[in-house]
Design brief:
Length: 507
């Protein structure tokens, strides 16, 4: 390809030299309005959009097929990127050396060099660049590899241009977030001791932003999310990214303790408070003094203890069981639940005043089915973690990964984690095949086929119904072994029993 095809697109659209305070700005490129419409709400997005509008964001398209290059260029340019084109790796490297490229759209199947090698080289030359790889549908596996090597996202060919536009819209948002929160995000991600939160979907980027904010305040935070979405992980990261990271982080599972125990665990007791209390013991609220207490499954806290907890939070002092003297405590409270607390408040099972007290800040962790694009990344993460502990590096077949991408994951990340661990234990070689996956994943397609199962209004199955089916069919397949079912579904056994009770399956 000739050098003349390196197209900065400047002439196709508004003049980047137009001064930013020109009253009538040229918003003519179609895509710009799409982006603005979608993202205007967040004021912070404006800088990225401005940058894109002014054609300051550079995007390089590397593909040996001219139609693809041209199609991608039109979409990228309509959003406002300045585009560069290259039909081979060498040419791409030259562009990278000469221009500050923000985004690369990279075909993984280029003649000559292997696509992954090109990716590695791009990352070596410009580590900050966002790379989106394009790959044939038959080789999703290579996309997984690419994600492991730092690609931001992938599209499978053939893709339609609308799909590409959505991805590029997301990239714009991402570029903005990255600028704004780079430092804070680094803190969230690099802190050792609580494991890293995996995910690069826009939903997760949003979450990182809120975590950063929450970490630097001392207000209570209510962490909402389905079972297995990472509520505890998020709670830890809020604590460990904040100023009190050197103080204790104490997690209490209100769902698994019997009520009388919760009280003495949380508030402590004095000697002689009850039979067996031979000496006094500090409550966890006291142990966590100066740090964070994480009240998991807060929705399960009995009403009388809710009152006691509220008092403790308001007065910053607690009364140990059997004690008369208040003990001062200064502790930050994080609470989590997968229950709908608002409904619980309406039904009178959760105190409204405590709800307001805990809900000063709230964040909702997206379910895995809302961020399926993170699945390859999570699979890679868990495979790598297992490889470190077992010494065997396994990978996953395209077919198996496809099944995982289709599945609905009622148990979210925990279910996926268990699924990978189980598959590794079952697989005889170093590749995980479809047969190594749990049957509910293998059979998912048929189950979700709308002709075979009754659906809700307009053919949409409510998530609760999907969850119910997954739970009941797991128990059925395991011949009634509920503990094993809970483990494989990736939910706690208390959760499982509660659900079964809701379904009326057990009393
Ligand atoms: N984004 C993520 N990246 C990596 N691992 C994750 C992520 N989210 C969850 N996990 C892992 O999934 C498992 C479940 O996470 P966690 O216990 O935090 O979920 P939870 O929301 O508290 O679940 P539950 O409601 O069942 O208590 C953990 O092993 C955790 O490390
Ligand atoms: Mg939990």
């Amino acid at each position: 390809m000739s050098g003349s095809e390196t197209d900065t697109n400047r002439n196709h659209h508004h003049n980047p030299l137009v001064s930013p305070h020109t009253a009538q700005r040229d918003l003519s490129p179609v895509g710009t309005e799409v982006v603005v419409g979608k993202m205007m709400a967040a004021k912070s997005m404006l800088a990225a959009i401005d940058k894109a509008e002014a054609n300051l964001l550079n995007l390089l398209i590397v593909d040996d097929e001219r139609v693809i290059r041209d199609g991608c260029r039109d979409v990228a340019a309509s959003i406002g990127f300045t585009t560069f084109l290259a039909d081979n790796a060498e040419h791409a490297f030259r562009v990278l050396d000469a221009h500050s490229v923000d985004v690369v759209l990279l075909d993984l199947r280029l003649p000559g060099l292997n696509g992954l090698e090109v990716l590695r080289e791009v990352k070596r030359r410009r580590p900050e660049t966002i790379v989106i790889v394009m790959t044939g549908f038959a080789s999703v596996q290579s996309a997984v590899q690419a994600m492991k090597h730092g690609a931001y996202d992938y599209v499978t060919k053939p893709f339609n241009l609308e799909e590409l536009r959505l991805i590029l819209d997301r990239v714009l948002g991402h570029l903005q977030l990255t600028n704004e929160n780079r430092i804070l995000r680094e803190q969230v991600k690099s802190k050792e001791g609580f494991g890293s939160i995996i995910g690069r979907s826009p939903e997760m980027e949003k979450l990182y932003r809120i975590i950063s904010k929450a970490a630097h305040s001392t207000h209570p935070v209510l962490i909402l999310g389905e079972s297995g979405t990472g509520k505890e992980l998020v709670a830890r990261s809020i604590h460990y990214s904040g100023p009190f990271r050197d103080k204790p982080f104490i997690a209490v599972d209100c769902g698994s303790l019997v009520p009388s125990l919760i009280e003495s665990e949380l508030f402590g007791y004095v000697k002689g408070a009850f039979t067996g209390a031979n000496k006094s013991k500090d409550g966890l609220l006291t142990v966590a003094d100066g740090g964070t207490i994480f009240l998991d499954e807060i929705g399960e806290l009995p009403v009388d203890l809710q009152a006691k907890l509220l008092r403790a939070l308001q007065e910053k002092e607690i009364r140990p069981v059997g004690g008369t003297k208040p003990v001062p405590v200064d502790v930050r409270v994080l609470a989590a639940t997968n229950r709908d607390l608002e409904t619980a408040v309406q039904q009178g099972t959760f105190r409204r005043d405590l709800y307001f007290r805990l809900n000063v800040l709230s964040l909702r962790i997206p379910s895995l089915r809302q961020r399926k694009q993170d699945i390859p990344l999570l699979v890679g993460h868990f495979l790598e973690r297992l490889a470190r502990s077992t010494g065997v590096q396994r990978n996953i077949s395209d077919e198996a990964l496809k099944l995982m991408l289709n599945y609905d994951w009622p148990g979210n990340v925990r279910e996926l984690e268990n699924c990978i661990e189980r598959a590794c234990a079952l697989s005889s070689g170093t590749t995980i095949h479809t047969g190594d996956l749990p049957t509910q994943i293998q059979n998912w397609k048929e189950q979700s086929n709308p002709t075979q199962v009754p659906c809700g209004a307009r053919g949409i199955v409510p998530i609760s119904e999907i969850e119910k089916r997954a739970i009941l069919s797991a128990i059925d397949q395991l011949h009634g072994d509920k503990l094993e079912a809970a483990r494989l579904l990736g939910i706690g056994k208390t959760t499982l029993y509660r659900k079964l009770k809701e379904y009326g399956t057990i009393q």
